[in-house]
Amino acid sequence: MTLAKITSLDFVLSLEATGTGFRARVLSSPSGEASFDFALPDSLASQRTFMTPAQAQDFGQGLFNTIFQGEVLGLLRRSIDEANRQELNLRISLRLGDLPGLSELPWEYLYDPTTSAFLSLRDETPLLRYIEVPVPSRPLAVTLPMRILVFISSPQDYPSLDVESEWNNLKGTLAGLQAQGLVAVERVDQATLDELQQQLNRAEYHVFHFIGHGGFDEETREGVLVFEDEANNGRLVSAQLLTTMLGTERHTLVLAVLNACEGARVEQGNPFGGVAQSLVRMGIPAVLANQAPITDQAAAILARTFYQSLAQGLPVDTALVEARKSIYTGGFKIEWGIPALFLRSASDGRIFDPQILDVNKVINTLEQSLPEGDPTPRHLVETLERLQGFHACLKEWKDLHNFLNDVVMEMDQFQLQVERLDASSSPGDPRSLALSWRSIGQRVGMLLDWAGTIQYIGTPVSRQESGLKGPEWAMDLNGAQTRIEALFRPGEFNLSALYEATHDFCDTAKRHMYKADKSLRETAGELYNLSTMVLGSMKS
């Protein structure tokens, strides 16, 4: 899939207070407008966090069934069908405003029982919270690397955070992206406003990445971030003060990331969400804010996948879907829903327009200007060709990882469906299971078709009379797929056998996904070593 071609249709849903409850109103969609009045059940209104994936799914399904009823549900179904017909995504934008009891709910867990899927985990239905701002934001043309300024705050009168560990974890997480020249990461030495101002005056940055505590200002009744003062005590910093400091008039900083790490204190609901809304209203095009503390492992997956996707030119909502899927398949079946995206209403989701060096153009220019017999430019061309090869190899490993990640995501849901039937002692309905399997089989087919075009990570897949030929991962996945599909033939269905085949398929896909991730890291390391050698020779 070509990154520049990813676009979406918009389904804008406004939630408003009425005299007796709330109203869900579709402001725009591919299929028209509609509204529906509803009351929020107490069981949903008090829910903020979950102990198990089943609790998250039950909450998401209850919230979906409460909001999407009548013509509103009909519009959603028709809009998804229209987006599928045009081979586009349907971006679901929630306009929540500051409604008490609604804005603090974890909407990211909306679960559609018909498709048996969380909306925000699907490529086809990215979900965001949009803030109505009349001034549109344009994508920022960025010559890579994307520059990220990290601010880690741990004042002494708040629960202590391991600042150095947080910094080293983030650096380690993004090391591969740095080696590829996609990002550059710098840290504010002291977590004070003065030090932040000095750092911003020294260089331009594209992303402000905050790690620390969230608080609540009793005087202003607003969520705040907790910085440090000169005595290392906590200083409450409002969105207005932070926006003034970040200087949005410079138009280089287009994203803020607010992360409550492990051990961080987040007071009174979701102060990061309040800060995020205010930052967007005051000029930051997009804010990614965690609604609750997140484990270091999940935060690492989020940062790596999210920033990599942004640097490759993906819209910010699509980049977050990629990150959510990576967190989910990494074994964190609840934390994928903690990040919430706040975006300007007049934005199409593209906040970066990365400008990447065209190596082929450079090589052609050099070759045309080569003096005959001069080995120096020839050596440079050969080095550029090696760099180009590494980049192409990286892209293929990443594409394979993403394909497998998508397959694992859908397979997890299918596996859960099979497990529930097996546990219920029901004979099962092969037709409903076959229907659920169909989309997974189509994804595997797309992966095998793509595998016929690879050049750098193995022998391209070919279909011969004797069967499929290609890399180990393609052969293994095709074999696991064939075993499942054989069970759906007339007279062959056996739920116990399907249970075992499903587990085998999941294990196979995950094993090769982890291998692809390892190869991706190793290739990034080789690219880094070559880049270091080139830079060293230039200095000498």
In terms of DSSP E residues, the strand content is 15-25%
In DSSP terms, counting alpha (H) and pi (I) runs of 4 or more, how many helices? Answer: 14
Q: What is the CATH class designation of the largest domain?
A: Alpha Beta
Report the span from N to C terminus: 42 Å
CATH architecture of the largest domain: 3-Layer(aba) Sandwich
Shape: globular
- Stated plainly, the CATH topology of the largest domain is called Rossmann fold
What Rg is obtained from the alpha carbons, in whole angstroms? 25 Å
Write down the domain tally: 3
Strand ordering within the main sheet: 3-2-1-4-7-17-16-15-11-9-10
Contiguous low-pLDDT stretches (5 residues minimum) are 1-6, 262-266
Helical fraction: 40-55%
Biggest sheet: strands, sense, closure?
11 strands, mixed
